[in-house]
Amino acid sequence: MAMTSVLRWDPVRELESLGRRLYPVFNRLPQDVRAEDRQAMTAVDWAPVVDISEDGESYHVTLELPEVKKEEIKVSIENGVLTISGERKKVSEEGNGKKYHRIERLYGTFLRSFSLPDDADPAKVAATMKDGVLNVRIEKLAITKPRSVEIEVG
Q1: How far apart are CA 22 and CA 19, in angstroms?
Q2: What is the DSSP string of 42-53?
Q3: DSSP label of 29
Q4: Which of 30-39, 60-69, 85-94 is predicted least confidently?
Q5: Cα 128 to Cα 70: distance, rounded to the nearest angstrom
């Protein structure tokens, strides 16, 4: 009697596998750029993850940039758009005595762009880099609150 083995098909596993294979293709351009602007941009190799928050005085943009030197990062604001770009150099097998069996981390150039809110002050921006995390602080404009004045009717 011949035995046949049946492999159970797992559609979720198949989708996860497809997603992992397609990630580098679809992750080459920043997600925050309009479709018409994407064609004018050069391709990038990866996009670092970002958190954006605010408090009463400023906006905070935090990017994870492990193994990226602060000299390799450019932060600029133009026409109300914050742009952060740079490069993470690929590790070289030559000269470090290591033989790599798998490299899954992404290397190369990156670019992230974000539209700033109207109350962000492009003249008051500070960026700091510590432990592979870039923090950009954009102060809010000092908006004068309307005040109420009572006027006596005579």
Answers
A1: 5
A2: PP-SB---EEEE
A3: S
A4: 30-39
A5: 9
Q: Which of 128, 24, 27, 36 is nearest to 84 (CA)?
A: 128
Question: First and final CA of the chain: distance in angstroms?
Answer: 111
Nearest to 68 by CA among 113, 109, 25, 23: 109
Residue with tokens 């989708």: 15
Residue 105 pLDDT: 82
Q: How far apart are CA 98 and CA 93, in angstroms?
A: 6
Which pLDDT score is estimated for 18?
Answer: 75
Residue 27 has pLDDT above 60, yes or no: no
29 or 109: which leads in pLDDT: 109
- Domains of the chain (ranges; CATH) run 27-92+105-140 (2.60.40.790)
Locate 94 and state its tokens: 């030559």
C-beta of residue 118 within 8 angstroms of C-beta of residue 106: no
Contact by Cβ (8 Å): 112, 84: yes
